[in-house]
Amino acid sequence: LLCSSEHLEVAKSTQTMNEEELKRVSGNYDAFFFHPNTYRCARLAVGATLQLVDAVMSGKVCNGMALVRPPGHHSQRNAANGFCLFNNVAIGAEYAKLKYGLQRILIVDWDVHHGQGTQYIFEEDPSVLYFSWHRYEHQDFWPSLKESDYDAVGL
Q1: Which are the contacts of 6, defined by CB distance < 8 A and separation ≥ 6?
Q2: CB 91 within 8 A of CB 46
Q3: Contact, 80 vs 100, CB < 8 A?
Q4: What's residue 32's pLDDT?
Q5: Is residue 73 a part of any domain in this protein?
Q6: How distant, in Å, are the alpha carbons of 47, 80, 121, 145 from that of 33?
Q7: Looking at the predicted structure, is the pLDDT value of residue 82 above 80?
Q8: Who has the most CB within 10 Å: 58, 72, 81, 141?
Q9: CA 25, 29, 30, 34 torsion: positive or negative?
Q10: Model pTM score
Q11: 144: domain CATH number?
Q12: Distance between CA atoms of residues 49 and 80, nearest Å
């Protein structure tokens, strides 16, 4: 699973929260802030990503780019992180594997920040190669993780 049921339930519950409750829930995450529309917007971003996969795989388009907000590469199975609620690219990759039988997927991430969520999700999956091009600065640049260094590779 790319999103735990607990994470999904927390995200759903924020739709009816007041500002104080949203601040409290947001405080449980690193660089993530809930708004009553966050869950809806994140679902639309995932849906747009899946529609793009379908359009490319069906041949309706030759290629494409899902310019969606919120982004996704920091989100992990159990937690929102770095302005990301759901990991859109990971969901899209799994969808492509399941629906279209893809056996090898390359994810190239050229954001200035390391997409640790995507790395964690696929680091033990030999069918997905995740390549992130990001700033590290000796672990001083967010997300400031040792696994963001150049020598971190899949398991």
Answers
A1: 78
A2: yes
A3: no
A4: 96
A5: yes
A6: 21, 9, 22, 21
A7: yes
A8: 72
A9: negative
A10: 0.94
A11: 3.40.800.20
A12: 18
Report which DSSP code applies to 61: S
**Calpha distance 13→98 (Å, rounded):** 29
Question: Which of 138, 17, 147, 143 shows the shortest CA–CA distance to 74?
Answer: 143
Model pLDDT, residue 95: 98
Asked whether the beta carbons of 128 and 109 are under 8 A apart, the reply is no
Find the DSSP H helices in the chain: 5-13, 19-26, 38-57, 88-100, 116-122
* Residue 155: inside a domain: no
Backbone angles phi, psi at 142, to 5 degrees: -55, 135
Active-site residue identified among 74, 113, 114, 134:
74
**Are the C-beta atoms of 129 and 87 separated by less than 8 Å?**
no
Q: Which residue shows structure tokens 């927390």? A: 10
- Residue 118 domain flag: yes
The token duo for 50 is 């899946």
Nearest of 129, 133, 131 to residue 112 by alpha carbon: 133
pLDDT at 1: 72
Amino acid at 92: G
Is 74 annotated as catalytic? Answer: yes
**Could you tell me the residue range of the domain that residue 99 belongs to?**
5-148
